[in-house]
């Protein structure tokens, strides 16, 4: 699964508005005209240039040009059917972007998350596969916890840092009676989340609001829509010292504010934790996604903030065996639980 992100380039009709050389040094021989041969050709080219997931990249690009999401989903007859000159040129063009280390998600302009096809556009964060596990955990808790019921029969959910809307929209699609308040400080994210909500026809159950969790008193703007049953977030959590170690796809294209969590990766996490008790119902919960080092750091921080009445009660690891970014919090009475999902595991807390 490709997980690279991207930022700062303009979108033009499905192809990014960055420039690349008019020379076409990697055109395949004229006889390489079908999909299978093109995938093999571009896999070799990508491998020679050190492009990660070379075969997957070439398969996604060729499939996209032929109107499919994956190469495997193409009709078998298309694997050996000659491409038109226009299709060959389109493959060449998209592959040229990949040679510049542009992530496939942004080259294609869309990506699937929890069965939803979402538009992707820079500099908005691309949702990772691990975050799908966070959504699944939230769904488990909602369906197994009868106390998580809002005034309209389903939970009211607040997502902090909604990005493309992946988490919010997938929860809305799986919980038909739920409602969501989705906030983000980035204008690009707000616009993209609106567009994805419209595309999926979920706009009537979601409010998408510009919001900076780090601003003092900003939480008051959310009070008219609260209190909420759940707070969910996949915040910036990368340790600042690790930012320079990120892949070129990230360093070259992505907004660092979507990733950099400060010295200990906790800058935004602590703001969310401080915000949540003001907006959560007494039986509310918090789900976060974090780094593997964060459960211990979060536990220590919460001990230093007894007035928040939050307590870490659960941690889960992601499918790679790592903790997921902090994940969830819930609270019976004045004691909500917090489930944490670090990017190497998930955690769970409660509020007292």
TrEMBL record:
The keyword Ligase does not apply. PROSITE patterns: N6_MTASE. Residues 37-109 form the Release factor glutamine methyltransferase N-terminal domain. Its EC number is 2.1.1.297. It catalyses: L-glutaminyl-[peptide chain release factor] + S-adenosyl-L-methionine = N(5)-methyl-L-glutaminyl-[peptide chain release factor] + S-adenosyl-L-homocysteine + H(+). Keywords: Methyltransferase, S-adenosyl-L-methionine, Transferase. Pfam families: MTS (PF05175), PrmC_N (PF17827). One of its GO terms (cellular component) is mitochondrion. GO terms for biological process: methylation. Residues 157-243 form the Methyltransferase small domain. InterPro entries: DNA_methylase_N6_adenine_CS, HemK-like, N4/N6-MTase_EcoPI_Mod-like, N5-glutamine_MTase, PrmC_N, SAM-dependent_MTases_sf, Small_mtfrase_dom. SUPFAM superfamilies: S-adenosyl-L-methionine-dependent methyltransferases. GO terms for molecular function: DNA binding; peptide chain release factor N(5)-glutamine methyltransferase activity. NCBIfam families: hemK_fam. This is peptide chain release factor N(5)-glutamine methyltransferase. It comes from Balaenoptera musculus (Blue whale).
């Amino acid at each position: 699964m490709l997980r690279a992100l991207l930022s700062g380039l303009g979108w033009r009709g499905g192809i990014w508005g960055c420039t690349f050389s008019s020379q076409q040094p990697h055109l395949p021989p004229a006889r390489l005209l079908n999909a299978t041969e093109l995938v093999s050709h571009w896999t070799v080219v990508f491998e020679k240039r050190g492009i990660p997931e070379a075969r997957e990249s070439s398969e996604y690009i060729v499939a996209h040009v032929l109107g499919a999401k994956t190469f495997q989903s193409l009709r078998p007859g298309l694997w050996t059917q000659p491409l038109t000159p226009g299709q060959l040129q389109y493959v060449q063009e998209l592959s040229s972007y990949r040679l510049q280390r542009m992530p496939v998600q942004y080259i294609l302009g869309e990506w699937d998350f929890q069965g939803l096809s979402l538009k992707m556009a820079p500099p908005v964060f691309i949702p990772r596969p691990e975050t799908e596990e966070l959504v699944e955990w939230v769904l488990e808790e909602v369906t197994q916890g009868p106390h998580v019921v809002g005034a309209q029969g389903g939970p009211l959910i607040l997502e902090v840092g909604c990005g493309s809307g992946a988490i919010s929209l997938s929860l809305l699609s799986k919980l038909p009676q739920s409602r969501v308040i989705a906030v983000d400080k980035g204008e690009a994210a707000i616009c993209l989340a609106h567009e994805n909500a419209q595309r999926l026809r979920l706009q009537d159950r979601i409010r998408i609001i510009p919001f900076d969790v780090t601003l003092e008193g900003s939480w008051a703007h959310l009070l008219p829509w609260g209190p909420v049953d759940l707070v969910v977030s996949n915040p910036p959590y990368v340790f600042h010292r690790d930012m320079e170690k990120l892949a070129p796809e990230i360093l070259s294209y992505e907004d660092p504010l979507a990733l950099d969590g400060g010295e200990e990766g906790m800058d935004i996490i602590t703001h969310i934790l401080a915000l949540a008790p003001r907006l959560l119902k007494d039986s509310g919960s918090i789900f976060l996604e974090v780094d593997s080092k964060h459960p211990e750091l979060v536990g220590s921080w919460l001990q230093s903030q007894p007035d928040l009445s939050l307590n870490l009660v659960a941690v889960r690891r992601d499918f790679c065996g790592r903790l997921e970014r902090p994940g969830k919090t819930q609270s019976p009475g004045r004691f909500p639980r917090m489930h944490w999902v670090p990017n190497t595991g998930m955690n769970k807390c409660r509020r007292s």
